[in-house]
TrEMBL record:
Single Gene Ontology MF annotation: acyltransferase activity, transferring groups other than amino-acyl groups
Domain of life: Bacteria
Pfam families reported in the protein's UniProt record: Acetyltransf_1 (PF00583)
Source species of the chain: Mesorhizobium mediterraneum
Keyword Acyltransferase: yes
Gene3D superfamilies given in the database record: 3.40.630.30
UniProt protein name: N-acetyltransferase domain-containing protein
InterPro entries: Acyl_CoA_acyltransferase (IPR016181), Bact_Acetyltransf (IPR050832), GNAT_dom (IPR000182)
């Protein structure tokens, strides 16, 4: 059985960090497959260690969640808030667990927490080759929007920005 819990301890954030490092390696490999430069991907999106994730994701307006089956971490998602805008970060499900609803459970959990805050909008950044993720985001009401931050050099065309207005 898959259980989604909020990351609270340094050990939880070590697990999240390991998943995020795995996500970074997958992202770099996919950039190569799609002919995109990957030099800046790790430093732009995957450079947080467990301590910095703990600091970034434990204030009242942030969160990190882990999906586990028993003691095995299957995926993670985080969010950070800036005023009345939240941003989904680090949604990742291990490849062998994809298509089983783990990503949807993680995203729903993060969105529930965001909706309980004073945020009016949720943003996220993805890339065009993450088609399954884009489909999931659309199922949760996200739509493409104008860029709200710069993309890493060489990834401008592949970077997708999405938002969802909270009612």
């Amino acid at each position: 059985m898959v259980v989604v819990t909020k990351a609270l301890t340094l050990a939880d954030f070590h697990e999240a960090g390991a998943l995020i490092a795995e996500m970074g390696q997958w992202d770099v490999a996919q950039c190569g497959v799609h002919g995109l430069p990957s030099e800046d991907v790790i430093s732009a999106y995957y450079s947080d260690d467990a301590a910095s994730l703990l600091e970034k994701c434990t204030s009242p307006s942030t969160g990190m969640y882990l999906a586990r089956a028993g003691s095995v971490a299957l995926g993670c998602v985080g969010y950070v808030s800036h005023g009345d805008v939240a941003e989904i970060i680090k949604l990742f499900v291990r490849p062998e667990e994809r298509g089983k609803g783990v990503g949807a459970r993680l995203l729903a959990t993060a969105l529930d927490a965001i909706e309980q805050s004073r945020c009016q909008k949720v943003n996220l950044v993805t890339v065009s080759f993450m088609t399954n993720a884009i489909t999931l985001y659309r199922q949760f009401g996200f739509q493409e929007c104008e860029p709200f931050e710069p993309a890493p050099k060489g990834l401008e065309e592949a970077t997708r920005y999405m938002e969802r207005v909270i009612k």
